[in-house]
Amino acid sequence: MPHHASPAIPLLIKGGRLIDPATGTDATLDVAIGADGRVDAIGPDLPELPDGRTIDASGLIVAPGLIDPHVHLREPGGEHKETIRSGTAAALAGGFTTVCCMPNTTPALDSPRVLADLAERCQRTAQCRVYPVAAGSIGRKGEQPAPIQALAAGGAVGISDDGDAIADPALMAHVLAQTAKANLAFMQHCQDPTITVGSSMHDGEVSTRLGLVGWPRHAEEVIIERDIALVEQTGCSYHVQHISSAGSVELVRAARARGLPVTAEASPHHLMLTHEACEGFNTLAKMNPPLREQSDVESIRQAVVEGVITVLATDHAPHAKHEKEQPFEDAPFGIIGLETALPLYAEALVHTGLIDWPRLIALLTVEPARLCRLERLGLGQLALGGPADITLIDADHRWTFEESQVAGRSANSPFLGRTMVGRAVASIVAGAERMDRLVAAR
Ligand SMILES: [Zn+2]
Q: Are residues 138 and 212 in the same domain?
């Protein structure tokens, strides 16, 4: 889907550590970008470009532009929380050059007409690339199937009722069959609504102490278990969104071991926090699915190490201050994620020695590109002649996440005030620098 473009000038990125997991590249190499916004050359000691600009990337990681396959841009209908303009600015601030937006807008992304309206809005105001994930059912009500072939033809890169699961098994079987026919992945928000009535946090010792209705792990697991049986019938690519429980990890592991087309994503908060973050009725820790226990965090991390979880996604979910400043049970679920995801992933996975930077970059580039069928556009990799979407990362940059710096419209994050290590210092989309803190970072 087109974004609001700014003209590119020839650009040379010199002396960086080029990591491109799509080709297994991890070496000191220069990248030359033409005025057409495409990669012209990759190699050692490339010459300066006439009429061009040079970025000294020594000491920096040069990666394909990061892709977040799960964000909520809130437009249309929730512009007091976020807009396409502000959400994509937040993406660039965090190093993401492509985001896939979820269909739980008002109206929902359930018709080609709504997708066309979204494309027109993106053309006017998006700061990075935006691709829509369209609804599987009309209005995301889980009753009537959405016109999935038409949605795919209209630019959808995945199908999901995110915010809700498709609970009805007959409808789910139909939607999976149609999604398979469209050669897209179905992305499930795994929550059995009959098990989570009135629930606002993980069912455990903290919910008991706070007197809140618990949300058990099996609310997620029963949906995954049922869906895996339907995947066997339909052959549809199936993706578990924001996995939260150790039991879910085991189900995905077993399905993948049997060769089924099942993938899963982990979010920064499920890799970093437990239900204890909800102490004091902290609504900034109220998530769907909920934060669980340390054993779940360890399982999710281990699943990343073992290649059971292959995609990282923020589930960036902006909410206005007055919405989060309500009693715990009334406050909406979710936190923003785009601006802090990269250092939090690094803290959970790289600084712990679990994976290295090339694997982390893979989980943020080639893997989500594959999930969302963006490889055919050349995204998620750096190929000669391909789009010059590039993220420069200073892995050692130490910074504190302050509310005053938030690029998006909402600041609902439990990580405010936290000092982090690692940051995107430039985001380049089609050869144009759309975010640059290179001078400030050095
Ligand atoms: Zn969700």
A: yes
Q: Are residues 323 and 367 in the same domain?
A: yes
Q: Cβ(33)–Cβ(48) under 8 Å?
A: no
Report CA(11)–ligand 1 centroid distance (Å): 38
C-alpha 420/C-alpha 418 separation (Å) is 6
Question: How many angstroms is it from 97 CA to the middle of ligand 1?
Answer: 22
Q: Measured in angstroms, how far is the CA atom of residue 103 from the centroid of ligand 1?
A: 10
Give pLDDT tens digits for 169-180: 999 999 999 999
My answer on whether 358 and 410 are in the same domain is: no
Distance 288 CA to ligand 1 centre (A): 6
23-50: average pLDDT: 96
- The alpha carbon of 25 and the centre of ligand 1 are apart by a number of angstroms equal to 33
CATH number at residue 408: 2.30.40.10
Q: What is the pTM of this model?
A: 0.97
pLDDT digits (tens, 9 = 90+) for 74-110: 999 999 999 999 999 999 999 999 999 999 999 999 9
pLDDT of residue 407 exceeding 80, the answer is yes
Q: Which of 25, 27, 30 is nearest to 12 (CA)?
A: 30
Q: Tell me which residue range forms the domain holding 350.
A: 64-377
Give residue 287 CA to ligand 1 midpoint distance, Å. 9
Q: pLDDT category, 357, cuts 50, 70, 90?
A: very high
Instruction: Give the percent of the chain with pLDDT over 90.
Output: 96
Residue 50: what pLDDT? Answer: 87
Residue 296 in domain: yes
Q: Is residue 163 part of a domain?
A: yes
Is residue 397 located within the same domain as residue 324? Answer: no
Amino acid at 22: A
233 CA to centre of ligand 1 in angstroms: 24
Cβ atoms of 423 and 343 closer than 8 Å = yes
Asked about 315 being catalytic, the answer comes back as yes
Residues 240 and 36: their CA atoms lie apart, in Å, by 37
171 and 151 co-located in one domain: yes
Query: Do residues 213 and 355 share a domain?
Result: yes
Q: What's 92's domain CATH number?
A: 3.20.20.140
Burial of 54 (0-12, 13-18, 19+ CB in 10 A): middle
Please give the mean pLDDT across all residues of the chain. Answer: 96
Contact 44, 30 (CB under 8 A): yes
Looking at 30, 315, 389, 394, which residue is catalytic? 315
Ligand 1 ion local residues (Cβ < 5 A): 162, 189
Residue with tokens 């369209």: 134
